[in-house]
Write a structure and sequence with these properties.
Keywords: Coiled coil, Kinase, Membrane, Phosphoprotein, Transferase, Transmembrane, Transmembrane helix
Helix content: 40-55%
Organism: Thalassospira lohafexi
Strand order of the largest sheet: 2-1-5-4-3
CATH architecture of the largest domain: 2-Layer Sandwich
Number of domains: 4
Catalytic activity: ATP + protein L-histidine = ADP + protein N-phospho-L-histidine
Protein name: histidine kinase
CATH topology of the largest domain: Beta-Lactamase
CATH superfamily of the largest domain: PAS domain
Shape: flat
Number of strands: 22
Pfam families: HATPase_c, HisKA, PAS
Radius of gyration: 48 Å
Low-confidence stretches: 1-10, 318-324
Distance between the termini: 56 Å
Length: 682
């Protein structure tokens, strides 16, 4: 759109205004730098003086302590290593006892002590061009005042070094600021010269575009009066007309034929854009009885926080095999693209496609386009092209096809075809080779994992099943030994026989549970299941232990859902039996089962099984769902498969199960939460 108007900010008047603003900004920056420099130096100077005074005061105090301990010590000899510091000693009447203190410093000290009767302090003494830092420390026990002084210049070396460094940094900042201002000014000057050059040749360019049958119009999306903000060569390209065409959006839309209007209503009127830029062949009425074919390209852009729509119209001729707009599209599109006629003949391709495939493309011009692809995909490409061509109105289609690149490697390309427009179909592609290869690798990995899981389940089933018969024999004969020889042998033999019988029983129970675990999840024939009835069946199976332990089970109304009735019954049975097994001594078990919709997912029910037993520490929240994991091996019997079986049943139904670790320690017991997918009717 730079050819339709010259930005106001590039005029001579605006350039002078920008120059003044740039100069003002530069002066402001210089002032800020100067102010910052002097402010920092003042702060550093005050800090250095305070630090020097504090150091000298501390020195005087330490020397006073040494004098109290050793009255004959030579103080000046002690501070000789500290260059520039002089020490003297005064009596209570401020008369010199030892060392040398200039009289004018004694006078300043006398005035200061009268105003500030402190035991120790420091002060600045200024006489002519000389500035001294003086510190004193009173020694009442000796009726003495220890005085230490030094020229201020001796203690300000660090400050001088700092001010030199800051001055160098200030000069560098000033140089950068001025250089940046000069660079910006040069850029503005070049933009101004370029705008002036464009303004001189704008009319000539507009005439050239008019001869080529090109027009540009634009308008804001939120326009109230429909007035065009740009109308280059509109309506001149329509030719002579007796009608008075006003610079309004409605004048342009009213000249579109009904079919063209229906195709462009979404982006141009309803502001619904499938892409940021669209292109289409349209018919525009040039007078009452004639229409003309144009190629329309429209795009939406943002300027000054307002949305604008710009439309480019290019006049076409009936005898053109491939319109200039489409040739321009193929030449400038960054994606691999081809142009194919209704007979499937390749007419053109983009530079990006040539870069991908190589120069052999030139041998395929005028040949059937499907020769681009691998033999296995040629029929798919031909069928897609025919289905697109046979449509009455222009449409689009998508397909993933393989071809050979310039290095003779297989590449997977996702093609998006649109058309036909005046007998021409255009297809653009994106290289999805990496995605397809990764998807194939993932598919192979999933197949291997599925086969491995099936093999493991089959192995567990066969192993568990085949172990049943020899285990029955072991159990039967050990029980027969116990029955026949109990009491006839010694007590140790009876104990060994009991161990064998008990081990056989536990092994039988473990194998039975393992066999049940292997079978779980193989039934995918789901039906509608009422969870209330499933829970009643589980309670019926546990009727004996519920009665013995005086357990109570409460629940609200449970939903119906799609699932395996036997698996869900086993799920409730395991959770309830665990809650009863791991009860607190002397406390009747109470299990409360609640259900509510699972808010995050929406398509699931969330069940909660809460008991008042001994509870589970949160650190074991993940471990308890693994195979053969038991937390109380010595206190309670079991195989460690119960919760693993629960997890497998829940995952078979598409849900998850976990231990509620947010339950406070003060509230004994455990809470298991699991989700189950709701039925389709719900």
């Amino acid at each position: 759109m730079f050819m339709t108007s010259i930005e106001q900010t590039l005029s001579r008047r605006s350039l002078a205004k920008l120059r003044k603003r740039l100069a003002l900004l530069t002066m402001t920056g210089v002032f800020v730098l100067l102010f910052s420099f002097f402010f920092i130096q003042k702060t550093l100077y005050d800090s250095a003086v305070d630090q020097a005074s504090s150091q000298l005061e501390a020195t005087a105090y330490r020397l006073g302590l040494m004098l109290l301990q050793h009255s004959t010590v030579d103080l000046q000899k002690i501070v000789d290593d500290n260059s520039g510091v002089t020490v003297g000693l005064l009596n209570g009447q401020l008369e010199q006892v030892s060392g040398y203190i200039p009289p004018h410093l004694i006078g300043d000290l006398a005035e200061y002590i009268v105003k500030q009767p402190a035991d120790r302090d420091s002060l600045l003494c200024v006489h002519g061009q000389q500035v001294m830092i003086l510190a004193y420390s009173k020694l009442p026990d000796l009726d003495r005042i220890l005085v230490a002084y030094t020229p201020r210049s001796k203690l300000m070396e660090n400050w001088r070094q700092a001010i030199i460094l800051h001055a160098l940094l200030f000069v560098m900042a000033m140089t950068i600021l001025c250089g940046l201002a000069i660079w910006l000014w040069q850029r503005l000057k070049r933009q101004h010269l370029r705008a002036a050059h464009l303004a001189e040749h704008f009319s000539e360019t507009e005439n050239t575009l008019s001869e080529c049958g090109c027009a540009v119009i634009s308008w804001p999306v939120d326009t109230a009066d429909g007035k065009l903000v740009t109308q280059m060569n509109w309506p001149e390209i329509l030719g002579p007309s007796n009608e008075n065409i006003k610079p309004l959006l409605t004048e342009f839309l009213d000249r579109l034929t009904p079919s063209s209007m229906a195709r462009l209503r979404g982006p141009l009127i309803d502001n619904v854009w499938p892409d940021a830029r669209i292109g289409a062949m349209v018919d525009i009425r040039i007078d009452a009885n004639h229409t003309q074919r144009f190629y329309l390209m429209a795009h939406r852009y943002l300027e000054n926080e307002r949305d604008f729509i710009s439309v480019l119209l290019l006049e076409t001729a009936a005898q053109q095999e491939l319109c200039n707009p489409f040739e321009t599209y193929l030449r400038h599109t960054p994606e691999p693209s081809i142009a194919v006629d209704t007979d499937g003949i390749l007419h053109g391709f983009s530079p990006a496609f040539e870069e991908l495939v190589g120069t052999r493309l030139y041998n395929l011009i005028g040949q059937p386009f499907f020769k681009l692809f691998e033999p296995e995909d040629q029929q798919i490409a031909l069928a897609s092209s025919r289905s697109l061509t046979e449509k009455r109105d222009s449409g689009d289609t998508k397909q993933i096809l393989r071809l050979r690149d310039r290095n003779d490697n297989i590449r997977w390309l996702s093609w998006h075809a649109i058309g036909p427009f005046d007998g021409m179909t255009f297809s653009s592609a994106r290289d999805v080779t990496e995605f397809v290869e990764n998807a194939n690798k993932l598919r192979d990995t999933l197949d291997q994992l599925k086969r491995s899981n099936e093999d493991l389940e089959q192995f567990a089933y066969v192993a568990s099943h085949d172990l049943q018969q020899p285990l029955r024999m072991v159990a039967s004969y050990t029980q027969l030994l116990k029955k026949r020889y109990a009491g006839t042998l010694d007590q140790e033999a009876d104990e060994y026989i009991d161990y064998a019988v008990d081990g056989a029983k536990r092994m039988h129970k473990l194998i039975s549970h393992l066999l049940e675990y292997a079978k779980t999840g193989t039934n995918e024939d789901f039906s509608t299941v009422d969870c209330n009835q499933v829970l009643n069946e589980a309670q019926a199976d546990l009727k004996t232990i519920i009665s013995q332990e005086h357990a109570t089970i409460t629940h609200n109304e449970l939903p119906s859902l799609m699932g395996d009735r036997i698996g869900l019954s086993r799920l409730f049975q395991n959770l309830v039996s665990n809650a009863i097994k791991y009860r607190r001594p002397g406390v009747p078990p109470h299990i409360d089962i609640t259900v509510e919709p699972d808010t995050p997912s929406g398509d699931f029910w969330r069940f909660s099984v809460r008991d008042n037993g001994i509870g589970i520490h949160p650190e074991h929240a993940q471990r308890i769902f693994r195979l053969f994991q038991r937390l109380h091996k010595d206190e309670f019997s079991g195989t460690g498969l119960g919760l693993s079986l629960c997890r497998k049943i829940v995952e078979q139904h598409g849900g998850k199960i976990w231990l509620d670790t947010t339950r406070p320690i003060s509230d004994p017991g455990a809470t298991f939460i699991f989700t189950l997918r709701a039925s389709r009717s719900e």
